[in-house]
Amino acid sequence: MIHVLLAALVPSVLGPLPGSFPRPAHEVVAVKAGTIYAVENDLVVEGGGTILIEDGRITAVGKDVEIPPGARVVDYGADAVIAPGLVAADTTFGAPRPSERTADLSVMAIEGFDPYASYVFALQEGVTCAYLPPARGRLIAGQGAVVKLAGRSDANGSGRVVSESAMIHGAVSAEARNTPGYWQPPIPATVDVGMGVEQPQLPRTLMGAIVALEELVALAQGGEDHGEYGPGVGARLRELIAAKRPWRMAADTEPEIRALLGFFGEKGLPLVIDGMGGTGSASGTALAGEIAKAGVAVIVDAPINPNAPGRDFGKDRDAAWPRFDVAAGLERAHVRFAITPANHVPASELRFAAEIASRGGLDRKAALRAITLSPAEILGVAARVGSLAPGKDADLAIFNGHPLEPGTSTLATWVDGEVAYKRSETAAVVLAVDELFLGDGDVLRPGEVLLENGRIRDVGQRVGRPAGAEIVRGRAAMPGMIDALGHLGLEGSGRVPATRFALGRIVEPGDLADKRVAKAGVTTVVLSPRGANRSGAPMTAYKPAGSNVEKMLVRDPTALRFQWTERNRLESGKSVREVLAKAAEYSKKWDEYEKKMATWTPPKEGEAGKGEEKKAGESKEGSEESKGEKKESGAEAQSEGDKKEGADEKKGEKKEKKEEGDKKKSGKKGEKEAVKTITGAWEAEIAIPPFEKVRLRLYVLEEDGKLSGSLRCSSLSDDLIQVAGERKEKKVTLSGEGTRGKASIEAEEKDGKLEGKLVQGAASVEIKLAQTSTEYEIAKRPERRKPKEEKEKKEIKGQPRAPGLDPELEPLRRAIKGEGAIVVGVDREDEILDCVEAFEGAKIKPILLGAKDAWKVADKIRGRVAGVLLSQPVVWTEPKTGAQRRNRYAEIAEAGIPIAFHSDAEEGAAELPAIAAYAVSQGMSPEAALRALTSDAAHMFAIDNRVGLIAPGLDADVALLDGSPLDLSTRVIRVWVAGEEVR
Amino acid sequence: MLVRNTRATARLLCAAVLLLLAPAVFAGGKIAIKVGRIITQAGPDILNGVIVIEDGRIKSVGPDSKAPWDVEVLDHPELVAFPGYVEAHSTRGMDRPNENIDVAPFLDVRDSIDPISFFFEDCLRSGILTVNVQQGPPAAFTGGCVIGAQGMVVKPFGLTIEQMLVKNGAGIKISAAPKAGKSRATQAQTLRKAFTDLRLYLDKLVQDKKDGKDYARREALYQGRDLEKEENKKGRAMEGSSTWKVKGLETVPRGEIDDKQEPLLRLVEGKIPAFVYCDAAASVPLALGVARENGFLAGTTLVLDGDAWKAADLIAEAGVPVVLGPNLMHVERDPVTGKEIETFVPGVFKKKNVRFALQSLNPQAQSLWYQAAVCVGYGLDRKEALDAVTRTPADILHLGDRVGSLEPGKDGNVLLLSGDPLSITTTVQYVVLDGNLVYDRSKDVRVKHLLEGVEQENAVPGGADAQAKPHDDEKAGEGEKAEKKKDAGEKKDGEKEGKKDGQAQR
Questions:
Q1: Is A910 in a helix, a strand, or coil?
Q2: What CA–CA distances, in Å, run from A242 to A8, A169, A793, B457?
Q3: Quick one: pLDDT at residue B377?
Q4: Which one has a higher pLDDT value, B493 or A213?
């Protein structure tokens, strides 16, 4: 255990550590994105570009770059934008502090660089390269350095050092004028020697600063050293001047800048002006011409700290308020300049600093250059960083929009051809489309929808963009469509299950056919058996492409399906009426109970707490107790909460198990490579008389020779068969209990296939299973839990007793309350009227199914039904009354009765959009058709609190289209179900 | 006021303890120790063995053979003999841990060590018999230093520095961590500058000699220094492995070199080791860089703290030993997710084959035995863990021939433990130092007070308060006194529970 712990701890996961970059020898990587801002030569690649990286360096940038075979391709998608890794020309990394001397060239900023620290917050904003100041607040504070914030490096991080000595860093502005006097106490301080005196240091004024600079330059040129700047300054400065190191001097006001221009012009030394954009620069722009003439570069401070409270600038007439036009002025005068955040503002605000320069009129192109190539040039490191060009280091910042557009965030940051930062996988998704069809008939043009944590968080013409959000642009988007009555998941079964059967139990995540249906845009299917029964067949709305059972089920059961019309028309509706009568009585009992509970006041003393608890809880569990036999099924159907809880537990367990399994597997691999694990999905086709040939699917997880999983085959069982077994060498045995008795498989592994026999009862067939996947991605479904043993409940005297809970009538009661739906098959007009009337008596608005003649009585049933699911032919030819073609869907919809489309098929649900498009092509209003596909369908099944609309709070089921939803040419591009993209 | 009182009490108490033990000191450091088990740390354990110590040195270690007839025998078959723990680096035991001057290698901790500090008493009680006292702990506590004083190895027994002395000039303390008021860059600058200044100084000496100026010589004579002292017969030039040489230094007599510069010169010559403190991985490159540039890498030991383990690759490459900080588990948070990441530091260095010694937080709470036990708990071998508190620190202090194991010829330092050294219930029963019995737990007043409670009448330690208010006591009337007694009785009960705790904690 301890060793396992050690192994887990030693390789730290904290960011890229120095020396921890095992790099495959000579790897070629192709990074693709929709747009590339190379900055070099102002190259912009639009409509898809590629950057080739070889051994950490860029070898090609462009639209039509040939990707060599064997290259690793990383595609960030058409909406992504690649810019050069940003270069921060000023930072506070290394917590710089000034030395005691006014001019101390021996302070090397590089010594303050911590290659072991995490710079993730800067990398997260696309900053890959940073200048480290040696210190601030001195005439000459030392030598600045340029480093990378991540990337390949040798053990001491020197691989990240771009320039050990980039510039002489100093200041003539106010910050340099507080240098305290220099005092070095003698050791030992005796009576003879004394304590010494403080030696004052220049400058206190701008004049003093220039004088001191004069003296220093004179020292460097071999002037007499009186030692007032400390030993060795002259020699050091001489070396640096010989190496043509630029002088980066902080200056804020016009006099300071003019003084610098004059001094450095006279001495012929290279100058970089630092600051200028600070609050003191009222006249920076006026100077731009002179600066340009002198050929001096400028590092402009953005005069704002965005992530802090406001500052007071001064109330005087001539108080220096921040100006945002300095950068724009320099740009107009053709001065080379870089933009940085103000002093003490973190480098992660670099993009914001550049963005805010646009307030002064700087265009985006120039602003981008001012945080990439220009700083690289000014810092003297443009040969390696600052732009995307062959031969330069592969430092990339990949954004989800233009890097300088507000709301844009970073998708990834690359340094030296390696990913140094990647946004988290579970980040939000923003769909930004030209037309956003909300589902209720409204359209936002343009529209955006924000998906987060499986829900729709915001909808509008423009929504917020949480950091790291993926931004997907497109033509149109709509809510996921709803198949109002389909059979996807029945796998050919024609059996009608009992009313209390939870259809959710046959729902199975991870199925390929299900995903294909979802990819067609149909994200919700109201699953119905192929027929009805007397007490109502259960129907369940579920999402075929959900990633686990909880996410898949919308509400179980969603509706009950009845059949009104009988073959013997005299019998029509008889059974339904009986059920309705029972339901009415049942519902009445509950109503009475609820009414009593509402007026009942629990006894005060002692028992008060418990009484309240019961009242609040409506005490379903209590009622279960009173009707012992129905307890189990009741709990199953109703206590969804319990179920979910159970599922969660199971999931956790399973995860652990899986991990263990993985470990064991890997352990095993070492010993016996020969026998492959059979974990994964297997499929076969079998024909067990009297059934036809059907598909059999087996999901199995192998753990140490023990097998477990599920088997699905409509000929063997109506729901999933939980199977278990074992594997010895190549022999596999599995068995489980289905609704039609025990089924077992004995098979042998042969060439990656399982061949053997399947036995159920007397039947025995040959079976040949082929593996379709090696992953066991099935969430273990909740065990059918027995309801908890009721804690001894003291009956409180006088408390009304709850009526028994009847799972067969409960859905009807819900329908009466408007929380559920009843689907009833009926076709002739007189029967429709009878049916509607009967349901009206029970205070239920039914959904009519079939309803061949509904158009004839449309006026009479309007408002009395929840909706109509018309039988399949959209256009009906009535031979009896002559060749009369009617678009019944359009007629009912126009009559103001909600309709919905249904497939009455399994994977055929994928054709639903085509059915709707056909209805439109035959005269139905596209708006009504769209509603029928989404919100109307959701509303009639009372699942509109989860699906059917693009509205905040609803499930994030959205389809991205390349055109208007009901155009025949429109294709579904991408689909999200519960916030997860269906792939 | 309170502080002074505490100190006064401490002095009193120490005197008391030492007086108590005085009769137990054997003459001539001659003793035979018979125990049930000897953990020699230099081979297999010996059951029922005898350690014979003569003239303060171990004469023999072996199975139950005959003890010489003329020595006192300490016969405890129920106990376990173990070499004393070795503390490779400690910044305690001094009256103040730091000087304010950046570069002060001319200082010596011997002027600062306080022999009656509680620290040494606690060391004895927990079996730490060799302590390298060094200046300059982390900046957070005392401001830190750049180049600190010369350290000293002592044993925790004796009333004067001379009695305690094990080794002088144990090493110069250097800090690669920024001292208060400095950044990493300015710390590095000051550190490098110290060596640049040394060169400038030596250059100037040579130049002065050439120019016939004799200021340095006169100063040396004035101070009464021996111009041609000890090592100077071989030659006056710089010696050792120094990477840089000063041309013409051989013309300058050693004694002319100023005391302020001389210790650094010795460091550069490799004559004195260096203990370089690194608070984080970021300061490791500086520490190794300076040592390498100035040629004292071979004599360098890194004293690590914080996330310095991240630079283990660099350290392994440099081949220097390390002393690990008291926190063996390094905890940091992932800046994005906020998740805690824990690292077992000795495990990292073990993997990289770096020699490491452990350091105690303080002698009571995370003492060396406890640190070693924690290491075993996290998967280190028992031998490696025990070596890290005995043999390895002894080697680091260049005392491998004197302490760290029980072998003939080594110092007669033996711990008699009540059980296995790594067991939480084990206590140090006796300590034999240089062949003298210097500690007997049954006579340890402070332990007694801890376990059995303090009797109010005698008003002793822990009793700083009792000392602080003698007047109150005098003023107190009879009735009050009676009440106090009652309190004392109650306290006893309470402390009986404390007794159990105390035992559990050792």
A1: helix
A2: 52, 16, 94, 81
A3: 92
A4: A213
% of chain A with per-residue pLDDT over 70: 85
Amino acid in position A473: R
Q: Give the residues of chain B that fall short of pLDDT 50.
A: 1-27, 234-235, 462-506
Owner of token pair 């450091």: B29
Answer whether the bond into residue A446 is a cis peptide, omega within 30°.
yes
The CA distance from A89 to A347, in Å, is 9
Q: Do the Cβ atoms of B1 and B14 come closer than 8 Å? A: no
What sign results for the dihedral spanned by CA atoms B32, B38, B41, B43? positive
b/e per residue B388-426 (b: at least 16 CB within 10 A) = bbbbbbbbbbebbebbbbbeeebbbbbbbbbebbbeeeb
What's the pLDDT tens digit per position in A551-592?
A: 888 888 889 999 998 888 888 888 889 888 888 888 888 888
Q: Which residues of B touch A106 (CB under 8 A)?
A: 189, 192-193
d(CA B162, CA B25): 18
3-state SS assignment for residue B432: strand
Residue B486 burial by CB count (10 A; 0-12/13-18/19+): exposed, middle or buried?
A: exposed
Phi-psi region of A618 (alpha: psi -120 to 50; beta: other; left: phi over 0): left
Task: Give A781's DSSP letter.
Answer: P
Q: What is the structure's pLDDT at B14?
A: 46
DSSP structural state of residue A702: E
Instruction: Find the mean pLDDT for residues A716-734.
Output: 80
Task: Report the C-alpha gap between A88 and A132 in whole angstroms.
Answer: 9
- List strand residue ranges (DSSP E) for A327-428, in order: 337-341, 396-399, 410-415, 418-422
* The token pair that represents A453 in the structure block: 């944590």
Mutate to test the interface with A, among B186, B223, B260 (most CBs of A within 10 A): B186
Cα torsion angle, A875, A878, A881, A882, sign: positive
The residue among A645, A498, A648, A480 whose CA lies nearest residue A561 is A498
For A937, residues 6+ apart whose C-beta sits below 8 A from its C-beta are: A482, A484, A526, A867, A900, A901, A948
Q: Which of A97, A124, A232 lies at the smallest CB-CB distance from B186?
A: A97
Q: Do A187 and B334 touch (CB under 8 A)?
A: no
R_g (Cα) of chain A, nearest Å: 38
**Directed axis angle between helix B118-125 and helix B445-452, to 10°?**
80
Per-residue pLDDT tens digits for A612-649:
444 444 444 444 444 444 444 444 444 444 444 444 44
- Chain A: residue whose CA lies nearest to B330: A9
Which of A1, A4, A5, A6 should be substituted to probe chain B, the one whose Cβ sees the most B Cβ atoms within 10 Å?
Answer: A6
DSSP A791: P
The pLDDT tens digits for A214-224 are: 999 999 988 77
Which residue do the tokens 């600062």 mark? B112
Instruction: Give the C-alpha separation, A658 to A965, whole Å.
Output: 42
φ, ψ for residue B109, nearest 5 deg? -65, -15
Task: Judge: B183–A187 Cβ closer than 8 Å, yes or no.
Answer: no
Among A3, A107, A157, beta carbon nearest to B189: A107
Please name which of A116, A157, A13 lies closest in space to residue B279, comparing C-alpha atoms.
A116
Q: Do B101 and A187 touch (CB under 8 A)?
A: yes
Q: How far is B159 from chain A (nearest CA, A)?
A: 29
Q: How far apart are CA B447 and CA B430, in angstroms?
A: 13
Do A212 and A218 touch, CB atoms closer than 8 A?
A: no
